[in-house]
Design goal:
Elements (H helix, E strand, L loop, with lengths): L5 E4 L4 E4 L7 E6 L10 H19 L3 E6 L6 H10 L3 H18 L15 H13 L3 E4 L2 E4 L23 E2 L11 E7 L14 E3 L1 H13 L3 E7 L3 H16 L4 E7 L2 E3 L2 E2 L10 H7 L3 H9 L7 E3 L1 H27 L9 H17 L4 H20 L5 H18 L8 H18 L3 H13 L2 E6 L2 E6 L1
Parallel strand pairs: 3-4, 3-10, 7-8, 10-11, 12-14
Antiparallel strand pairs: 1-2, 5-6, 6-8, 8-9, 12-13, 15-16
Helix pairs in contact: 1-12, 2-3, 3-14, 4-5, 4-6, 5-6, 8-9, 9-11, 9-12, 10-11, 10-12, 13-14
The structure holds adenosine monophosphate (AMP) and zinc ion.
Adenosine monophosphate binds next to α1 and β10.
Amino acid sequence: MVTPVRLHNTLGRRLSELTPLEPGHVRLYTCGPTVYNVVHIGNLRTFVFEDILRRHLLAKGYRLTQIMNLTDVDDKTIGGAREAGLSLPEFTAKYEEAFFRDIGRLNVQPAEKYPKATDHVPEMVALIETLRERGHTYESDGSVYFRIATFPGYGKLSGIDLSQMRRGERVAEDEYEKEDAKDFALWKGAKPGEPSWPSPFGQGRPGWHIECSAMSMKYLGRHFDIHTGAVDNIFPHHENEIAQSEAATGEPFVEVWLHGEHLVVDGEKMSKSKGNFYTLDDILAQRDDPAAVRYLFLSVPYRRKLNFTWEALAGAAAGVARIRSAFGRIEEVAASGAEKPGAFDAKERGRKFLEDFTAAMDDDLNTSEALGALFPYLREVNVASDDGSLDARGARAALEAIRSADRVLGVLPAAPDALPAEIEARIEARNAARKRRDFAEADRIRAELASRGIVLEDGPSGTRWKKA
Ligand code: AMP
Ligand code: ZN
């Protein structure tokens, strides 16, 4: 029997049992990076939380379609490109590559698709047109605004107090304060020197919020299962996404909203001005152990603040080392070939351990409790190995149980035979994309592999790969 997954839904602020709208298939939208700088470890904490969600749903046997957008046009990317004296695509390409490199180093599994905002402007325009036809918009100075008073459900996600709001006040910026419920920009009239696209409302560019509504509904349908981000996304971004999407379709947009808490540094908000702003490169320059960073993120459940300190990172590195060294010792016993009657029953204990592990993960992805189930099991198996009561068969069963948990945790090195098979599968996916002339997808797969240190060479006898 498959036990149900319970998740804390921000909409309604309660635990809900996941029941996919299409039986057996979970459709998931995870807000992706704004590619205007190298992501910081706070952003990465959120991407790892979403990866854990992904891996747990796959481990439960669900088919999964995960879409993560890349915000490559908005106020921040345009401002950054201008300052750097680069075109918008030149500017964002650099950070897109850095993003894939970072998530690859943290062993984040690739989503099914990473659509870019600049490739979906027609879909955004069509959505704004629908909103206009249904009377939810007004135009001012060449821009189109969403009139929040036309959507009675406005505020249901964030619980914002609308009583202070003055009708018709509007905001042109993509990001604004929680206290400021205002009509927001769907389409921003072109300004000199800014990239722009033609539309029925005049030349301009999309607002940030409409990007995610258009891309999520294009790939996942008008009504899908899970939408995630960090807590700063609740207002205004996700509140506005709900308003736009539901006002356009007249249907509910998303069943379950999940929001990860922030990473803070020495108890303070991470910010450039305080000098406590870390990228993954900054961290790895001090301690070259990406698995320790991943473990640190897992050691605190996603809905609790995570306080980054160097001591906590050292503790996480010790945790990874313990798992790896226990695993290595069990591998030695497994390789010994000896089998004994009356040996330690690693299989039965492994089954019990996986039951506890899964129960913790089912409980709103309680990763710290899941890790808490792993260590007693490792200890028992190690004690059995020390006193000679672990035989090869038991060791193999233990390795299988630990590997099974690690398909979610992702802190052990990949099994030696898993890598080639995985790469061959990605090469096949790339060949299929090339066949259907989806060269953007083919290039993306090449870039994704490159970010993991795998180089592809296309030759007359097919595609070969090697380590960079
Ligand atoms: P952005 O590139 O700013 O759109 O952020 C990418 C993701 O990281 C979003 O889901 C943000 O909500 C999330 N995020 C931003 N700051 C933090 C932080 N300090 N801790 C955790 N997640 C964050
Ligand atoms: Zn988004």
